[in-house]
Amino acid sequence: MKAAIITSFDQPPHYGDFPEPESKGPGEMLVEVLAAGLHHLTRGRASGAHYSSAGTLPLVPGADGVGRGADGKLRYFAQSPGQIGTMAERTVIELDHSIELPSSCDPVTVAAAMNPAMASWLALRFRLPYQRGRKVLVLGATGSSGIMAVQIARHMGASQVIAAGRDERKLAKLPALGATEIVTLGDARLGALTREVDVVLDFLWGEAAVRVMDTMLKQRADRSLPLTWIHVGSMAGEVAAISGAFLRSANLQIVGSGQGAVSGREILMELPRLAKEIARGTFHIDMTAMPLRDVEQAWCETSHTGGRIVFTPLQTANDRFDRKLR
Could you tell me the CA-to-CA distances from 206 to 24, 157, 172 in Å, in that order? Predict the structure, then answer.
């Protein structure tokens, strides 16, 4: 079969032939892959840098996807480290790591949206006793996951959603998606705008997070009010030098959200609900679908597209198309 193949952690995948996968038991199923998103998690595992990377080569990348099995049912599935990834014509899935989708679902839409949406959905559902009416800061709001976080926070009843990021062009689009305030990371208004925030969804971490934390706490209206800082991503660095004074001088709780912090059972419990909202068009995500044979070019040159890349392994090179989820 044809697949994207990683043979070196510091090189992009190439398109080539890979041995046919085989299911080994009743808990597994061979599926034809219809759509597989190019996510940060996928890149991290493919580089060997992500904490969940299996660290063995060669490998087929792809952390999740949408496919169809011999039973004819459409499924969204997530692959564990060590399994054949989703960027291939076929792969073997674990049935207990998959959910059935309505036959009317668009596979590209689901593959594009599930991974970036899952980050904030799980964080707000499981990493704090979330209540409607909360005031939420999305730190790193101009990435795919951040844009989804703005929409999901509003969907879950946030009274305010402050979107902070570097890309002014993308920030300007976020009020239409639910942001009540937008602010660039270096803006002097950041502290005043966030002084009463209850929850931070942090996709940046690193020194960027430390600077924002310092700015927020210095202008916090009441330091005794709970502030839950949820570390979701590390776009600005894996290490953040948090001052002990931050924790002593405010009612600040720092938690993480990801595989491990949220159990596999909890994730699977939430996937059908999230998939339903994505399928009905509750959230907006820009996406570009392209044939898998273009994987090497797309892996290296993502700046040409305005949204999430989704590979369609069974499409030909002439079938490239752009879609919008609204």
Answer: 42, 29, 25
